[in-house]
């Protein structure tokens, strides 16, 4: 994840796509304000020593910067511009471990599929809402028609 994010930022900065960035050849306009703020010390050093960095050198410099950064800032840098998955692509389906199942059995519970039950309840609510919308639309069309 860290390497992917650093590569993404490097590619945004490398405006001519030659694999190198320097103070003269850098595109900071495509960066978000948070990313720009995070990388500001690196850009300042790049300008001060008039260096040119390839992707490997840039990765090392950003990793060093990340190592000297608080967790909050590091998290913001790493998570910026990452697309959020659609709810339909979530794969989280929790299950009870053996010890928890044993405790529930001792208490008389026999159903352990909490996630599946939640999905079924959500589907019932969704179906109910669709039926209500359909009935409302039917009533409105009848009212307009008379």
Explain what this protein looks like in three dimensions:
The chain has six helices and two strands. α1 (2-13) packs across α3 (55-67). The termini are far apart. It has 146 residues and is mainly α. The protein has helices at residues 2-13, 33-48, 55-67, 71-79, 98-106, 114-145, and strands at residues 20-21, 53-54. Helices cover 62% and strands 3% of the residues.
Q: Enumerate how many helices there are, as a single number.
A: 6
Number of individual domains: 2
Largest sheet: 2 strands, antiparallel
Order of helices and strands: HEHEHHHH
Distance between the termini: 62 Å
Strand sequence of the main sheet, in spatial order? 1-2
Beta-strand percentage range:
under 5%
- Structural class by secondary-structure content: mainly alpha
Poorly predicted ranges (pLDDT <50, ≥5 residues)? none
Percent of residues in helical segments? 55-70%
Shape: elongated
Number of strands: 2
Rg calculated over all Cα atoms: 27 Å
The multimeric state of the shown protein is single chain
Mean pLDDT: 76
Please tag this protein with its features.
mainly alpha; two-stranded antiparallel sheet; 146 residues; 2 domains; single chain
């Amino acid at each position: 994840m860290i390497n992917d994010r650093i590569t993404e930022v490097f590619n945004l900065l490398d405006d001519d796509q030659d694999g190198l960035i320097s103070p003269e050849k850098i595109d900071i306009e495509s960066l978000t304000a948070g990313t720009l703020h995070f990388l500001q010390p690196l850009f300042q050093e790049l300008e001060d020593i008039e260096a040119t960095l390839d992707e490997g050198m840039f990765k090392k410099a950003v990793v060093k910067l990340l190592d000297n950064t608080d967790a909050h800032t590091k998290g913001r840098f790493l998570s910026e511009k990452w697309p959020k998955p659609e709810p339909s692509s979530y794969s989280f389906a929790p299950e009870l471990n053996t010890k928890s199942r044993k405790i529930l059995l001792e208490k008389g519970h026999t159903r352990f599929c909490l996630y599946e039950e939640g999905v079924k309840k959500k589907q019932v609510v969704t179906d109910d809402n669709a039926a209500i919308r359909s009935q409302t639309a039917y009533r409105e069309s009848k009212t307009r028609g008379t």
